[in-house]
Write a structure and sequence with these properties.
The chain is an alpha/beta fold. The chain is built from eleven helices and 18 strands. It has a domain of 189 residues: FAD/NAD(P)-binding domain (3-Layer(bba) Sandwich). 30% of the residues lie in helices and 24% in strands. Strands 1, 2, 8, 9, 10, 11, 17 and 18 form an eight-stranded mixed sheet that branches. An eight-stranded mixed sheet has the order 5-6-4-13-14-15-12-16, sandwiched between helices. A two-stranded antiparallel sheet has the order 3-7. Helix 3 packs across helix 9. The structure holds flavin-adenine dinucleotide. Flavin-adenine dinucleotide binds next to helix 1, helix 2, strand 3, strand 16 and helix 9.
Length: 437
């Protein structure tokens, strides 16, 4: 049995800083015997634990989280709950099954989130506002044409936007063209993940600050945490890019670090300089482009860096440097708001596979893994969590079949080649980004 490193960063910069703190659940301190163990309380693990609890109402579901809820990607993302993924390079007829499958998965996740939010009255600024996809430069403008063609061919409801229409709606002249996809929602990510964790069914036992340090596989799996152990018949790993000794699958994922800044709340006068939409979210049509939001509480958030930083958050010095890139992008888009200071600065790590697919796998007869969404995991993670629970309970149809049918992730080489490759590929993401950054 080898030991996992215990280097789980516990920093809370970003969206979590904007909201009321939450009391974490206690650590696991004594031995537990259970039929169901889920590792990781992000969107995937929370969704999986909730579904297992529904499917097994008389049983205990144990959910172990290494940090506190909200400290991982699920509390640090930009809050776009997408229904329709953007596939770069345009519509390819032979990919139709794939497009439809991915959208079914997204839609299942979106529907599930909406019903949990409604049923539990979770206050997370959920707004079914649709999502803007924008182009500021040449490469992304071409991508915009491809995307519009794709949306038309798939009869996905959308509105094309000219430079003047964008200015009227969002108050920026920076984008050349864009398209708004009607289906899709925006959320405050930290509020959402807090709400999901605090409304789990009674038969889910969530333990925070309880990292799994080792898994001994067997008919019954034995799991170690620093202060206790768990024996579990079935284990579902929902721990994204962070490997667990003995429980890991072959290297298929790396953590890529992103960073963003959020302004203070804008004044009435500043808001009047923006467009007619009261809150909105822009995704870039370039893979290295900025995601920009006007939030429900009237702040502007901007996220436009991505790098390989050994799967870790950025330190203060790195963050301050990255903020210059956020600032430039902000001033480009909103020159009349260039006096508005940023109040929050944060980073987050997303799980990325070599061929931009996700991982959904039974690793052994009673060990499962679901995760890695390449920067798009709110709806997909929720759906994968549902599917992992169903799969572990013996169901292989519908959503489970969709998740099993996605393209398999590529093998990645071990370190140090992994580090060099991940650094290079992440850098390539910005090739030709131009004004979209
Ligand atoms: C800056 C940023 C912006 C993003 N923007 C968006 C967006 O707008 N829309 C979107 O859909 N997606 C976005 N994403 C991606 C999205 O956040 C992730 O895909 C999603 O949060 C993944 O959820 P998860 O539950 O699989 O993983 P995570 O949220 O990473 O949760 C995994 C959990 O497992 C825990 N864990 C790991 N190892 C162990 C262990 N050994 N023992 C116990 N627990 C463990 C971790 O602490 C963590 O809490 C973004 C990501 C980042 C970083």
């Amino acid at each position: 049995m080898s030991k996992n490193h215990l280097n789980f960063d516990h920093e809370t910069k970003g969206w979590v800083d904007l909201i009321q703190p939450r009391e974490p659940r206690p650590k696991l301190t004594s031995h537990i015997d259970t039929r169901w163990l889920v590792i990781g309380a992000g969107y995937t693990g929370l969704s999986c634990a909730r579904r297992l609890a529904e499917l097994n109402p008389g049983e205990k579901i144990v959910l172990l989280e290494a940090r506190e809820v909200g400290q991982s990607a699920s509390g640090r993302n930009s809050g776009y709950a997408v229904a329709h993924s953007h596939f770069s390079g345009g519509y390819q007829k032979n990919q139709l099954d794939h497009y439809e499958r991915i959208d079914r998965i997204n839609q299942t996740g979106l529907n599930s989130l909406k019903s949990i939010i409604d049923n539990n009255h979770i206050d997370c600024d959920y707004k079914e506002s649709g999502i803007y996809h924008m182009a500021a430069d040449q490469n992304s403008s071409l991508e915009c044409d491809y995307f519009v063609d794709y949306l038309k061919k798939r009869s996905i409801e959308h509105t094309e936007l000219s430079i003047d229409e964008i200015k009227a709606k969002l108050g920026t002249s920076w984008y050349q063209k864009g398209v708004k996809v009607k289906n899709g929602a925006l959320v405050q990510p930290a509020k959402l993940v807090f709400g999901l964790a605090d409304t789990l069914p009674n038969n889910v036992e969530l333990y925070e600050n309880s990292p799994v340090t080792a898994i001994n596989l067997g008919k019954v799996n034995t799991i170690k945490t620093p202060n206790a152990s768990v024996t579990a018949l079935n284990v579902i790993m929902a721990c994204n890019y962070e490997p667990i000794a003995n429980g890991r699958h072959k290297q298929r994922v790396v953590g890529v670090t992103l960073s963003g800044s959020i302004t203070r709340v804008l004044t009435e006068e500043e808001i009047s300089l923006l467009g007619t939409e009261s809150s909105w979210g822009v995704l870039s049509l370039h893979s290295g482009g900025a995601t920009v939001r006007l939030t429900e509480d009237k702040r502007i958030s901007i996220r436009n860096t991505a790098e390989y930083n050994s799967q870790s958050l950025l330190n203060n010095e790195q963050l301050i440097e990255r903020q210059e890139i956020h600032r430039q992008a902000f001033d480009n888009r909103f020159p009349e708001l260039s006096h508005v200071p940023f109040e929050h600065l944060y980073s987050g790590v997303e799980g990325v596979t070599g061929n931009k697919t996700n991982i959904f796998k039974r690793l052994s007869s009673n060990l499962y893994f679901a995760g890695c969404y390449n920067g798009s995991g709110i709806t997909k993670g929720t759906a994968f969590g549902l599917a992992a629970a169903d799969y572990a309970c013996g169901n292989e149809e519908g959503l489970v079949d969709d998740c099993l049918s996605i393209e398999k992730p590529q093998w990645l080489p071990p370190k140090p080649i992994l580090d060099i490759g991940a650094w290079y590929v992440t850098k390539q993401r910005f090739k030709g980004v131009g004004k979209d950054r």
